[in-house]
Specification:
Layout: H1 2-17, E1 22-37, E2 40-55, E3 59-79, E4 86-106, E5 113-132, E6 135-156, E7 161-177, E8 183-200
Antiparallel strand pairs: 1-2, 1-8, 2-3, 3-4, 4-5, 5-6, 6-7, 7-8
Length: 201
């Protein structure tokens, strides 16, 4: 991770050396949803904060922190010991995901509506807590360094304000259980869409 951050720092230095004008921008974005299916209810919301350094008209570099909070509550349906009736056991699962990334953004066109594309490296930390039948199981895991990339649209609202729609892709972790009740961790591709406001100083 240190190597990637050093490489990013050197790249920023080279770009700064070749650009006489630079500006700082900040943006806040988030999303939320609640889904109810059968005996379960899932609530998820996220918030992101970004600080970027604009290097000329077409490039910017920045750091982003994103937090995702997910809660899944309800009942697990099973069969009684005599296999003559159903039983219902309450459960609750809370997951928090923290992502810190360093990205280079390319803005190919500047206008009222401006597309942008970005890519970089990220560290992702997962904290999970599962309560079921009076037993609490906690788990922590991390992924780093992993690629972080995506794109979006920036819509100018005024002289310094903008509205942003961003789609981001990054590897994630998924737990699976085989036929022998052994847990396995696999890498999957996560994606998410966020809406937010930006301000350029």
């Amino acid at each position: 991770m240190r190597f990637y951050l050093l490489l990013a720092g050197l790249t920023i230095g080279e770009i700064l050396a070749s650009n006489a004008f630079a500006s700082i921008s900040i943006s806040l974005s988030g999303s939320g949803q609640t889904t109810t299916s059968n005996l379960e209810k899932t609530t998820e919301h996220s918030v992101s904060a970004n600080v970027g350094l604009s290097l000329g008209q077409y490039f910017s570099v920045g750091v982003t922190q994103r937090r995702v909070f997910s809660s899944d509550v309800g009942y697990k349906k099973g069969i009684s010991a005599d296999q003559k009736s159903f039983i219902y056991n309450s459960f609750r699962e809370d997951t928090q995901t923290l992502t810190n990334s360093v990205d280079l953004t390319i803005i190919p066109y500047q206008g009222v509506v401006s597309p942008f594309f970005f890519g970089g490296v990220a560290r992702r930390d997962y904290y999970n807590q599962f309560d079921y039948q009076g037993v609490r199981i906690t788990n922590k895991t991390s992924l780093y360094p992993v690629p972080n990339y995506g794109g979006g649209l920036s819509i100018q609202l005024g002289q310094n304000f903008s509205f942003k729609v961003t789609e981001t892709f990054s590897p994630g972790k998924q737990m699976t259980v085989d036929d022998k009740n052994v847990e396995h961790t696999t890498t999957v591709r996560d994606s998410y869409t966020e809406f937010g406001l930006g301000y350029k100083f």
